Amino acid sequence: MILTSKNNPLVKETASLKEKKARKELGLFLVEGVKMSRECQASGFEIDRIFLSENYAGETLDEEKTVRVSQDVLKAISDEKTPQGVVCRVKIPKKTLEKPTGKCLVLDGVSDPANMGAIIRTANAAGYKEIYLTPDCTDPYSPKSVRASMSGIFFTKLYFGTREEIINALEGVTLYVADMEGENVFSINPPEKFALAIGNEGNGISEQIFSCASKTLRIPMRKTQESLNASVAAGICMYLLSKTDFLEK
């Protein structure tokens, strides 16, 4: 059986997951494409439903959860301009705020979905397993953020909390804040466990997080360049603070 109606309740509900309100109410988000769907399954995330285009001829992840749909229906569900033939509904993990086990990130009001996804992608690559997000961050489970994370979202733990809750969770942990007036990040030798805070693209770090900083760090730049993109700056700092992890033994 192939679903052909965009008004089908399951189709309408799934299409609504492109919006934050529906994701929050249903506890689900969208994952698209063969590669990301496969990596989502391998990571242990729970796939609720799999939608395959009627023309899709590749491998199936789980027959029992698979629904075949027409091309028009897949386009209605998908957030991509050119859907790849596979869209999954995935359960958003429910995690209680916990203390970090090693180096971690604090995202303090990061508002751009592409930046959010790129930061998560780099965090996974650089070994920052835990990411703490303040309430004014963009939704990391939005389709744009998920795509930009390139599966990083499946292999990092995302914790949501107020600034006060996050600060309490980080008690006793060295907190570095990225700031243009700080110390040269190239000169820092961090402890094994630390937190790196990245602020809002326009307004930087909030006063509440800034006041708890152990140190502020800056990336040196030529005078002809005022600033860097938030995700680029985050990536540079993450790797410089982790350089000993990647030196050949």
Secondary-structure topology with pairs:
Elements: E1 2-3, H1 9-15, H2 20-26, E2 28-32, H3 34-43, E3 47-53, E4 66-69, H4 71-77, E5 86-91, E6 104-108, H5 113-126, E7 130-133, H6 143-149, E8 157-160, H7 163-169, E9 174-184, E10 194-199, H8 207-210, E11 215-218, H9 230-240, H10 243-246
Parallel strand pairs: 1-4, 3-4, 6-7, 6-10, 7-8, 9-10, 9-11
Antiparallel strand pairs: 2-5, 3-5
Helix pairs in contact: 5-6, 5-9
Structure description:
The protein has 10 helices and 11 strands. The strands form 2 sheets. It has a 6-stranded parallel beta sheet with strand order 8-7-6-10-9-11, covered by helices on one side. It is an alpha/beta fold and 249 residues long.
Question: Could you give a short description of this structure?
Answer:
The chain is of the alpha/beta class and 249 residues long.
Give the amount of beta strand, in percent: 15-25%
Largest sheet: 6 strands, parallel
**What's the order of the H and E elements?**
EHHEHEEHEEHEHEHEEHEHH
Q: Label the overall shape.
A: elongated
Number of strands: 11
Structural class: alpha/beta
**Helical proportion?**
25-40%
Average pLDDT works out at 95
Q: Please mark out the parts with pLDDT under 50 across 5 or more consecutive residues, or reply none.
A: none
Q: Give me the oligomer status.
A: single chain
Give me the number of helical elements: 10
The CA-CA distance between the termini, in Å, is: 57 Å
Radius of gyration: 20 Å
Strand order of the largest sheet: 8-7-6-10-9-11
Question: Which keywords apply here?
Answer:
single chain; 249 residues; alpha/beta; five-stranded mixed beta sheet; 11 strands; elongated
